[in-house]
Amino acid sequence: MTHILLVEDDPAIAMSLKVTCKREEWQITWLDNASSVLPMLRSDKAQDLSAIILDVGLPDGDGLSLCQQIRHSTDIGPLKDVPVVFLTARSDEVDRILGLEMGGDDYCAKPFSPRELVARLKAIWRREQLLSQQSTTPATTSDEMAEPASSHQSEQVRTFECQSGVWHYQPLNYSLMWQEHKLELSNTERNILLTLLQAPNQVFSREQLLSAVSDYPDHRLARTIDSHIKSIRKQLAAVDSSVDVIHTHRGLGYALCPA
To answer: Which end of the chain is less congested by CB atoms within 10 angstroms, N or C?
Structure first.
């Protein structure tokens, strides 16, 4: 069963989302404070977690900082990469950019429709599976892709080869390796790299990359791609600083080194 962690201090919003998730036959765990989140993620109750819905304004902490803590935690295993959707009452573009840069996968501005939030979660899971598929794998129907990856998915590793070396992607645990080093990437950063890897000779504009990693792209936030590229480059340089993996094409966008 799909399991969602909801971190929201407003009981009315929590109840509405619980009803909606129940209709989807999803299990939902509700916490109303920030301090309980990491202990919950370290417990056995979180092992089957599919996503986190995280309020930005919590009574005992900042949801943005909490997301960053989750992304950098070393004691919660693969849960540090679980998709995060922010709930925010803030309409300022800067706040939305910060949320995405700190590791969020998407956001919903309050007031919002619970059905929209469910659609956004399904879109995240669908996008993860699309980027995981082998090019030789038969197309998956949209109904099959409406839920997160399950344990019966193929464990076959996908290999990409280009001038920068050999890359290995494990769809089951979303692990991306370069030169035998596992990269500690956010979901968005990993999906940007996978998009570039699938077409090494293609130059992708910021808008194209934003659309590739979000089914609800707000093109006013296209500049967040620059921050993600900077973070990716930092990790790649830590593995091998002699290789220029991602090329900047001024005025156009980004491309992986040619195959």
So the answer is: N
